Amino acid sequence: MAFQVLFLTLKTLKESGHEHVYNAVEKPLLLAQSAAVLEASEKYCMRMPNKLNFSFDYYYAAIAILGFYVPGSPHLYSYMLSQRKRALSKSKKE
């Protein structure tokens, strides 16, 4: 039930023209959802010992990306708005 409400809310945001807000909300939620699935399935994991003596867990990589994406979203959003304002002001002068 909660996922249906979330899906409909995201769909409404997307269709109303607020794609930047939709992307800022959708991407972290999808990444968190996929991280939970990857943690349970251990898919795309390379455990040690192996030929390369290298260990990689996609779950921790997804959490690290999420850790960078969420705090950076307000900065990216404000930058996008300033660029939009600049582009619109140039078109008015012409």
TrEMBL record:
Q: Is Lipid metabolism one of the keywords UniProt gives this record?
A: yes
Compartments where located: Endoplasmic reticulum membrane; Membrane
What is a biological process (GO) this protein takes part in? sphingolipid biosynthetic process
Name the top EC class. lyase
Q: What is its main location?
A: endoplasmic reticulum
InterPro entries tied to this protein: Tyr_Pase-like_PTPLA
So where does this one cross the membrane?
A: 58-80
One Pfam family hit: PTPLA
Membrane topology note = Multi-pass membrane protein
Name a GO molecular-function annotation.
very-long-chain (3R)-3-hydroxyacyl-CoA dehydratase activity
Catalytic activity entry: a very-long-chain (3R)-3-hydroxyacyl-CoA = a very-long-chain (2E)-enoyl-CoA + H2O
Give an example GO cellular component term for this record. Answer: endoplasmic reticulum membrane
List the pathway annotation: Lipid metabolism; fatty acid biosynthesis
Which E.C. number(s) belong to this protein? 4.2.1.134
Keywords on record: Endoplasmic reticulum, Fatty acid biosynthesis, Fatty acid metabolism, Lipid biosynthesis, Lipid metabolism, Lyase, Membrane, Transmembrane, Transmembrane helix
PANTHER family per the UniProt record, alphabetical: VERY-LONG-CHAIN (3R)-3-HYDROXYACYL-COA DEHYDRATASE
Q: What family classification does the UniProt entry report for this protein?
A: Belongs to the very long-chain fatty acids dehydratase HACD family.
Q: What is the role of this chain?
A: Catalyzes the third of the four reactions of the long-chain fatty acids elongation cycle. This endoplasmic reticulum-bound enzymatic process, allows the addition of two carbons to the chain of long- and very long-chain fatty acids/VLCFAs per cycle. This enzyme catalyzes the dehydration of the 3-hydroxyacyl-CoA intermediate into trans-2,3-enoyl-CoA, within each cycle of fatty acid elongation. Thereby, it participates to the production of VLCFAs of different chain lengths that are involved in multiple biological processes as precursors of membrane lipids and lipid mediators.
- This protein's name: Very-long-chain (3R)-3-hydroxyacyl-CoA dehydratase
From which source organism is this entry? Answer: Corchorus olitorius
